[in-house]
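Sample entry (206 residues):
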Amino acid sequence: MAKFDQRCYPDVISGILSARKPKVLDDGGAKAYRHAGVLVPLLEEDGVCKVLFTQRTHQVEHHKGQISFPGGGVEEKDGSLEETVLRETYEEIGLSKRDIEILGRIDDALTVASNYVIHPFVGWVASVDDLAINRAEVNRIITAPLALFYRGRSETRRYPVEYEGVTYETLAFEYGGHMIWGATARMMENFVEIMEENIGAPPPLG
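Predicted structure, serialized as tokens:
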């Protein structure tokens, strides 16, 4: 298989994800846990594979102001976790399911403070030219190079992050003055580890 570089290879990523079984977290039936689905959106800009994130507003119930993925809680009307992901993505940023190709799933993640089991789906997005951002939930869109998240991109991957008066020493990635941390950072770490195991890391950013 060709060595991974800074471009996107949706077919390769889809093949890798379809060949593995994602680790699914069992909440043990505990009512304290809720379930959510999120999209890890990949797109290509100027020949560089990037990941789309949202910065949440301070009006949302959980994770105010944090960098996250499009997505949200599972609702009874959703026929599947994939339906949850596509519905929530459309509601938050106006990206239609017609514009998203689901490439596969990565491992489930758990939020500590809000008690969510998160089910992440990786998706290929051909265009983000016609986004309609829900300003009640999303403050801005951020696209960061996928290569940023590979091991060895910086000397440290742990930072002190202050949030709502508490300082956390945590896995985090800094980009464009934004700190990507928490469950979002853990999901990105999981995704790039899967990719590195199969096709290696891309060349240095520059």
